[in-house]
Give the backbone structure.
Amino acid sequence: MMLKVEGLTKIFGGLRAVDNASLEVAEGRIVALIGPNGAGKTTLFASIAGFHPIDAGRVTFMGQDITGWPVHQIARRGMVRTFQITQPFAKLSVHENIAVGAYQKYADRSEAWEHARRVGEQVGMGALLEQPASDLTVAGRKRLELARTLATGPKMLLLDEVMAGLNPSEIVEIIAIIQKIRASGVTVLLIEHVMQAVMSLSEHIYVLSYGKMIAEGAPRAVVNNPAVIEAYLGHGAAERIAHPATSGAPEEAPHA
Ligand SMILES: Nc1ncnc2c1ncn2[C@@H]1O[C@H](COP(=O)(O)OP(=O)(O)OP(=O)(O)O)[C@@H](O)[C@H]1O
């Protein structure tokens, strides 16, 4: 297993944001982590990547126990995460922003610069390299965040909602980019609300709800799992969907 998370618990004050959650990601896979808003997905990512001290559990990455390691050491070992809210260096160009990531991999400046250019092209930003990051659209910023992390030369990427705020054609493009990244040998764990992307990209899905892992499996099995439907739509939803006529569900939603 490339990544193994066992019984991870993260408590904020009295809130068990992640509660005894476990997951595994095999090398070369694209695995998705889904769940309703506030389920604890980002907290789990941050905990895996060393951004929070955790309250219980163990994280093993490429055979090594990395629990409690600081962020930079985990990144150097090859696992990096993206952030939902991206904050590029606005005055720097796209190329310079990507190079910030590349300097972590290459000590030599010109090698880092060249690597940053290649990564920019890999994420479809070849024509935007000289632009200041402040000029980018939401989609451009998402790509830049992806490029910045990719430039560190990771073996595993944790992608946190890289499709949020994108239009349908931008989503199709970024799906293709993520597939190319995987084909280049990078293992991917992604948090995503865009189900079209989850279904077309991932081979395995984990579902988090109120901090607990409530389901896992192949995409189609997971989205048809009654526990998952209830987590998203509320208690009794699976029954209402399966038997709309007999379970007392209104034929039509009342008009507001
Ligand atoms: N630094 C923090 N301090 C206190 N509580 C936090 C902190 N970060 C997250 N939480 C709480 O932990 C819970 C899980 O939040 P988290 O952001 O991990 O959920 P999520 O599944 O990523 O949600 P979304 O899909 O909306 O991004 C929420 O109740 C949130 O308010």
Q: What stands out?
A: The first helix runs from residue 41 to 48. The pocket of adenosine-5'-triphosphate is lined by residues 12, 15, 17, 35, 37-43 (CB under 6 Å). The CA atoms of residues 176 and 201 lie 9 Å apart. The beta strands are 3-12, 15-25, 30-34, 56-61, 64-65, 79-81, 156-160, 187-191, 204-209, 212-217.
